[in-house]
Amino acid sequence: MMDAPITDRWIRRLNLLQLVLAGIIIMTPTVWMVLSSFKPSFEVTAYPPTLIFAPTMENYVQLTKTTPFVSYAVNSLIVTIGSTALGLLFGIPAAFAVSWTRITWPAILTLAARMAPGTLFLLPWYVMFRQIGMIGSYTALILSHAVITLPIVIWVLLPTFDGIPRSVFEAAQVDGCSVTRILWRIALPLVASGVAVSAILAFVFSWNYFLFALVLSNGDTKTLIAAAFNFIGEGSTQWGALMAAATLIALPPLILAALVQRWLVSGLTLGAVKG
Amino acid sequence: MSGAAAILTHDRQRLELSALSAPAVIFTVAMIAFPVVYTIWLGFQTFSSTGKQSFAGLANYSKLMSDYEFWHGLWVTIALYVLSLVLQLVLGVWLALVLFHAKRLPGMVRSLFISPFMMPPVVAGMMWLVILDPSLGAANYILQAFGLPPSEWLASPTWVIPTVALIDTWQWTPYVALIVLGGLQSLPPSVYEAAQIDGASSFKTFQRITLPLLLPTIVTAAILRSVDLLRFFDIIYITTQGGPGNASNTLNIYGFRVGFEFFNLGYASALMLTLTAIVFGAVLAFNRLRGAVAW
Fold first, then answer.
1. Among A1, A167, B79, B140, fewest CB within 10 Å belongs to which?
2. Same domain for A31 and A120?
3. Residues in A touching B19 (Cβ below 8 Å)
């Protein structure tokens, strides 16, 4: 068994090599996008592509000057924050009630939205929202995106509520606390970090969601993701501005994801895997 | 506390608990259950060119059976689904093992590894559109630097499905890896130790012990990816809109265009209900498989 440590070291080196390889494949496209966004316009389409260049902000300046990028970003924020708030408002009490009663069908019902293709809801929504003149309204966008945020909030919070010892609630009940009071005064402070994680995940997925805003928004309420299409139209010659737009659109979810990466597994699999 | 009062409190408590889940339930019924019923009804309607609506029975569904675009869309959906799922599961398990053995990876580096699936699929489409540009893209430059012939990528009817699968695999393999990693971390270490004492090689340990124990987790990852892959939309809509020609026209893209570009809501509803049935069928099938491989 003299050679065991040497084999170990080789295995570790081989693993490191694979880790670096995976890292390069995963990160290169993103790095390329960010690099391209800082390239002067004549260099971004240079062939062969250049790696060394004098970085410039001109693409970002052009983006904000020639497109309504800032107002799209404001729209995205309104829709994302609105739908996240709505998801929390409905999802927190529902998750608590499901965890308390063990009656799971309300939670499973919300999962339907996770499984069916969005177009299935979008067709009737379109007909109904058009009839009441709500196409292009923030309300329609926030309601539709809350369909995305609600199951995330419920399924991230369910295991955290489950984790509170039952005796805590029983003690409060003996003291004459109502169920609603137990939720807001006792349970919620105990799961505050879970609420933060669910809010961040809901924000990310609402921000990233494309389909609903594609149909339900208009020129004034278009979100960044739905407007990406316009950037591509203009971007056929303006890769720099296109990559600047892509970089800025990806930035908020990436920063938020880095904050919650430890809790991602349980959050992203909606209860299918215990993280 | 007397018995009657206890029952009263109990009833009050049940009422309160129902009230707590009521907003979520009412919202879901209003936004999902009711619209789905409406879609089912729409599926039995036709809309004339003037927008006049009339009952059509199963006409939309019989049209489906003889619609070339539907069968083509089904083929594209399934080809893209199988190719992407296999790639993502194989690479995902590999990446999970690599990450599992890299125990002291700092949190920041880990979040870089999972960054692809946290960015919007739309952004992934935009970024790859530039990288894969047939004439000026970096991908062809790299191919040629290795002496390989350049590819038309998304502009080629032959290569567009593998290319889209490649983009999706880049984005979602880390997600599969993260799920599988969760499964790996929950395996009892005693299993490995016993295998090591028996002198099993690391490949054999993986094949005989780790993989069978991981199967339920892998099936879970397969379910979650199936749901997304069968309704593939974002990346295709951004990069090719179903093209070139109709080479990447998945059922979801086709249904969307029938509904919102041609405004044939009845036929689009029939298409979407069929796709939904396919998604639920796949989930049920995998769920039974998970039951079969559970330990």
1. A1
2. no
3. 180
* Burial (CB count within 10 angstroms: exposed 0-12, middle 13-18, buried 19+), residue B145: exposed
Would A207 be classed as within a structural domain?
yes
pLDDT, average across residues B37-50: 85
Q: Hey, are the CB atoms on A253 and B119 less than 8 Å from each other? A: yes
Residue B28 has its nearest CB partner, among A33, A109, A235, at: A109
Own/partner pairs for A48-55, CB < 8 Å, 24+ apart? Answer: A48/B141, A49/B136, A49/B138, A49/B141
Of the candidates B95, B178, B279, which has its C-beta nearest A117's C-beta? B279
Q: Which residues of chain B lie closer than 8 angstroms to A179, CB-CB?
A: 13, 16-17, 20
Domain shared by A89 and A212, yes or no: yes
What whole-number distance in Å separates Cα of residue B160 and Cα of residue B144?
19
> Is there a single domain that holds both residue B179 and residue B33?
no
Closest approach of B197 to chain A, Cα-based (Å): 13
Range of the domain at A141: 60-268
Identify the three-state secondary structure at position B288: helix
ipTM: 0.89
Same domain? For A49 and A113 the reply is: no
Min Cα distance B158 → chain A (Å) is 23
Residue A246 pLDDT grade (very low, low, confident, very high; cuts 50, 70, 90)? very high
Domain annotation covers residue B196: yes
Interface touch A126/B260, C-beta < 8 Å: yes
| Residues of chain A found within 8 Å of residue B136, distances taken between Cβ atoms | 45, 47, 49
CATH number of the domain within which A141 lies: 1.10.3720.10
Q: Quick count: other Cβ atoms within 10 Å of Cβ B5?
A: 9
Establish if A74 belongs to a structural domain: yes
Contact check, Cβ <8 Å, B21/A26? no
Residue B61: inside a domain: no
* A54 and A137 housed in the same domain: no
In this model, does residue A1 exceed pLDDT 50? no
Domain count, chain A: 2
For residues B167 and B137, give the distance between their C-alpha atoms in angstroms, rounded to a whole number. 15
pLDDT the model gives residue B6 = 64
Strand partners for A258: none
| In a shared domain, residues A207 and A94 | yes
Tokens of B245: 């020609």
**Residue after which a domain boundary falls, among A58, A76, A91:** A58
Contact yes or no for B18 and A32 at CB 8 A: no
CA A165, CA A190: separation in Å to the nearest integer? 11
User: What residues make up the domain containing B32?
Assistant: 3-42
